Amino acid sequence: MDILKIFEDKYILAAVKPSGIAAQGDKTGDEDLMTVLGGQLFLVHRLDRPVGGIILYAKTQTAASRLSRQIAEKTIQKEYLAIVTGTPAAPEGELIDNLKKLRTVNMSKVVPPETPGSKEARLTYRLIETVQTEDLGSLSLLSIKLHTGRHHQIRVQLSNAGIPIWGDTKYNRIFMKRKGWSKIALWSNKLSFKHPDDNRLIELNSIPPYEEPWSIFNSLGDREVCL
Asked: What is the pLDDT of residues 122-145, one digit of tens each?
C-alpha cells in the first residue's frame, strides 16, 4: 500500500490516511496504517477507520507527550471537510451538545447536559456549496472546525442537527441499509500545531481524492490524487 507522507523528520510523521484503514492495530487484526508506515510510532490523534485525511504520529515518547499536551490545552487546530445529506439551517454556525459514548455498540449519542458520563462537544461549521442530486436530493459541502475531541463527534453532532454525513452507516438512516459500506464523506483536511522540538508552527493541508461524492463539488476543483 502506497501512503502519502506530507511531513516527516526525526520527531514526527504526518501522512494522508486512506478511508477504510485503521489508524493503529485493533481487535480485528486488519492491516493498519501504523504497521504499514513501520518504525516506532505513537498515535497523537485518532481518525475513525472510515475517515480519511491528515493523521499525525510522534516518533519519540517525548514528542508524543508534548503533542498530547497541546491537544489537552486545545492549541492543536483540526479542520475537516464533510459532505452531508441535506442543507444546514444556517450557512455557518456552532453546534454544542453533550455526548455519551455507548461502548457496547461503538456509537455515541446526544444526551441532556446532566447525564452522568456525558461530555460537552463543540464544533463550528461553514457551508461551502450545495448541489442537487437525483437519488439523495441536496448534498452540502461543509468546512468544520473541531473544538473538542469526542468519540464520533462530528458524525453524531451533524446527524443530530439533521444533516448526517454521506455514507455513514451508523448515523445516517439513508445509508444504514447499505451493508458493507466503509467510506464516509469526512476528510481531515487541515492540521496546525507547534513542532514538539522547536515550537515552530506547522500547518498541513490535504484534499480528498477526485471520486464520488467529492468530485461533484466544483469548489474542490478537478483533482486526480490526494495532495
From this structure: 999 999 999 999 988 999 999 999
Question: How many CB atoms lie under 10 A from the CB of residue 52?
Answer: 25
Is it the case that residue 225 has pLDDT exceeding 70?
no
What are the E-state strand segments in 18-134?
A: 42-43, 52-58, 77-85, 92-102, 107-111, 119-133
Phi, psi of 38 (to 5 degrees): 75, 170
Which entry of 2, 48, 168, 222 is annotated as an active-site residue? 48
Q: How far apart are CA 89 and CA 69, in angstroms?
A: 35
**What pLDDT digit, counting tens, does each position of 193-211 carry?**
999 999 999 999 999 999 9
Lowest mean pLDDT among 12-21, 29-38, 214-223: 214-223
Quote the cell numbers at residue 4: 502519502
- C-beta separation of 198 from 12 below 8 A: no
CB atoms within 10 A of CB 11: 17
CB-CB contact of 14 with 56 (8 Å): yes
Compute and round to an integer the Cα radius of gyration of the chain: 17
- Alpha helices of the chain — where are they, by DSSP H? 33-37, 61-72, 153-160, 173-176
Cα gap 81→70, rounded to integer Å: 22
Contact present, 50 and 82 (Cβ < 8 Å)? no
DSSP state of 60: S
DSSP for residue 78: E
Q: Is 48 a catalytic residue?
A: yes
Q: What is the mean pLDDT of residues 53-63?
A: 97
